[in-house]
Structures are given as structure tokens and as C-alpha cells.
Amino acid sequence: MLLLAKNSSLSTTVHSQLSASHTLTDIHIISLVGEAGLITLNGIVEIASDIQKVSGHILEENIFLGSTGQIRGIPSLLVHSDDVHAGHAARIERIPDEKLYYLRARGIPHDDATVMMIRSSVFGLFSGLDDTKKETIMSQILALI
How far apart are CA 9 and CA 62, in angstroms? Predict the structure, then answer.
């Protein structure tokens, strides 16, 4: 899932509930927050009681593209069973200056270097699509930010 907010607010809940044995959920959410953007995210993986061999994971990656954006979110696990493999994680970052510097030192303009970094973070979300669809989606995302 990809969330984008620039000069706007976005609030969402992603809730995956596992209620049968031998099931799996793997949620990956990337949030891009530009100037004056606000994202409120509730990511939840819930595992019911009395089920076995269940796997549930949630990863929230939050990337600030400006200096005034905000992100509020905590990935949550609600586990009511003993036979599970589960995990949660959140990462909050700006595009690292040292990576931008590396690209800019090789003659790549700042805006192009920023686009390259965003593409490398987001592109993996669309791994199941063909290249034409990936490029169409990436173009739409970049136009928004």
C-alpha cells in the first residue's frame, strides 16, 4: 500500500485479521509526506485464538519529502494464539543527505536524485506488475509529489 499526502491530510486504517490455521498476511505500507502533509495510519494485524501455524507481519515505512509534514502511526499486533510467527516494524526517515550528495557529486541534479531515491523506495511495491504498468504508476506518483 502506498500513501501520499502533500498540503492535505490522510487518515486510514489497514486491518488484517487472521482467523484460520495455516494463513499468512504480510502488509507493507509506504507513506510519502510532502510539505504540510499529514498522514494518520493505524496498521493492525490481528490473529484469532485457537489457530495454528499462522504468520502475520506489518511494516510501515514513512519518508518525509519536506520539512513540515507529519506522520502519526504505530504498527500493532493483536495476537490471541500461541502458534504464530509475527512481527511489526516502523521506519521514519528523510531521503538521506549523504545519498543525495553521492548522486549530485556524479552530476545528477538535486530533483533528479530525489526522484531516483523515491523510485528505489516505492518500486518494490509493484513487483507483480509488468514494466509498462510499473512505469505508468510511478509517473502518476511522481506527478503528485
Answer: 15
| Spatial separation of the C-alpha atoms in residues 100 and 105, rounded to whole Å | 8
Residue 11 confidence (pLDDT): 95
Helices 110-122 and 97-104, axial angle in degrees (round to 10): 120
Q: Where are the alpha helices (DSSP H) in the chain?
A: 97-104, 110-122, 131-144
Pairing of strands 9-18, 2-5: unpaired
Angle (CA) 129 90 70, round 5°: 95
Closest CA to 73 of 51, 52, 94, 88: 88
Q: Are strands 2-5 and 38-47 parallel, antiparallel or unpaired?
A: unpaired
Rounded CA separation 15/95 (Å): 28
In the chain, which residues have pLDDT < 50?
none
Determine the pLDDT at residue 55.
Answer: 96
* CB half-sphere exposure, 86, CA atoms < 13 A: 24
Q: For the segment 81-111, what is each residue's pLDDT rounded down to a tens digit?
A: 999 999 999 998 888 888 889 999 999 998 8
